[in-house]
Amino acid sequence: MAKLGIPAAPPRGRRIQETITQLRQRILAGEWPVGSRIPTEPQLVEALGVGRNTVREAVRALAHAGVLECRQGSGTYVISTDELAPVVARRLTDDRMAEVIEVRRAFEVEAARLAARRRTPADLAALDDALAAREAAWRGGRVAEFVEADAALHTAVVAAAHNGMLAELYASIGAAMRRTVTQAMGGALTPDRHVDHARLVAAIRAGDPDLAAREAAAFLEPDPGA
Predict the structure, then answer these.
(1) 219 φ/ψ angles, rounded to the nearest 5 degrees
(2) Which CATH superfamily is 84-218 part of?
(3) Could you tell me if 77 and 69 are in contact, meaning their C-beta atoms sit under 8 angstroms apart?
(4) Phi and psi of 100, rounded to 5°?
(5) Alpha-carbon Rg of the chain, whole angstroms?
(6) Of 138, 124, 167, which is closest to residue 36 (Cα–Cα)?
(7) Which stretches are transmembrane (predicted)?
(8) In the chain, ranges of CATH 1.10.10.10 domains
(9) How far apart are alpha carbons 166 and 103 in whole angstroms?
């Protein structure tokens, strides 16, 4: 029973559910778009006015539902706003990596084409930053860091296409996409495995949809022996 007129704290289960609802509402409102990283756990504790364990449980529940994805050493990202993306993600398993490449090609080629038509100055700045981070990660020789930076650049291209459904579907293959890049690196960043994405960014900046599409397709050519 509450004392001195102070309302009793809601049961823990209800607090978690309320926190899940608040997080969902912010995602749906576009505060944290698909592909973006949500605030850190301490920031969420302060913003939502709940305890650390409550935030942790709410984030875990949304990750299990396929709305969020926790990436070790990088943070927690929004990968979906609905139920479709988790279904797609569950189907893209390690034994279907060839299919992941084909899906990436379908998404990324069209995203590059649209980005060349629709990019804004803010998009171009984001692409420049992502490209610079990708190259810095490559020079650093750390595979995990490079894989995340590479994914961030491709996500920035998709964001520049300004197609919400495309962004959601692309985010749904994020984990599988990073696995394909990790496999392609073979555990080490050697010169023969480097793929220059500067021309892709340049084509988007130039507003050339056909060239941007060709550049996006060039590094996702199917294996002739597949």
Answers:
(1) -95, 10
(2) GntR ligand-binding domain-like (1.20.120.530)
(3) yes
(4) -60, -45
(5) 20
(6) 167
(7) none
(8) 12-78
(9) 12
Cβ atoms within 10 A of the Cβ of 92, count?
Answer: 20
Distance of CA 21 to the CA centre of its chain: 21
pLDDT, tens only, 46-86: 999 999 999 999 999 888 877 888 888 788 998 877 656 56
Domain spanning 12-78, CATH architecture: Orthogonal Bundle (1.10)
- Which residue did the predictor score with more confidence, 91 or 191? 191
| φ and ψ of 168, to 5 deg | -65, -45
Cα–Cα distance, 65 to 47 (Å, whole number): 22
Residue intervals of the chain classified under CATH 1.20.120.530 are 84-218
Tokens 């941007």 belong to 212
